Amino acid sequence: MKFRKKPVVIEAMQFETNNEIGSPNMDAVCNWANQGKGESAPLFHDGTNIFVRTLEGTMRADVKDWIIRGVKGEFYPCKPDIFEATYEPEE
Fold first, then answer.
1. Strands 66-69 and 57-61
2. DSSP string, 19-55
3. Mean pLDDT over all residues of the chain?
4. Taking a C-beta distance cutoff of 8 angstroms, is the pair 56, 45 a contact?
5. pLDDT, tens only, 28-72
6. Are 43 and 77 within 8 A, CB to CB?
7. Distance in angstroms (rounded) separating the CA atoms of residues 47 and 78
8. Strand order in 57-61's β-sheet?
9. Predicted structure pTM score
């Protein structure tokens, strides 16, 4: 059997740069995901990588990975080639 993924709209942000001087993207991605989460914040970083707490455990996101908010509000990282093959901008 073959299956097609249902059309679903997701939110995502790309982790473009680490926290080098003048590169606020790492903090921006974490702030976007953690907004209103308090102590149960799903994302944190060490200045080089972002770490995402998922049901499967903590996953590392590298520069250029996408952080996706799933349909149930969960977060997970996605490699850029997989993201490009799976998602397109919503019109």
1. unpaired
2. S-TT-THHHHHHHHHHTTTGGG-SEEE-SS-EEEEET
3. 89
4. no
5. 999 999 998 887 899 999 888 899 999 899 999 999 999 999 989
6. no
7. 19
8. 43-45, 50-54, 57-61
9. 0.84
- Other beta carbons less than 10 A from residue 36's beta carbon: 6
Q: How far from 30 is each of 50, 55, 73, 86, CA to CA, in Å? A: 8, 18, 14, 23
Instruction: Tokens for 78, please give them.
Output: 């996605």
Residue 42's closest CA among 68, 74, 10, 79? 74
Instruction: Map residue 47 onto helix, strand or coil.
Output: coil
State the Cα–Cα distance between residues 23 and 3, nearest whole angstrom: 41
**What would the two tokens of residue 63 be?**
């520069």
Whether residue 12 contacts residue 69, with contact meaning beta carbons closer than 8 Å, is answered with: yes
Q: What's the rounded Cα separation, in Å, for the pair 40 and 44?
A: 11
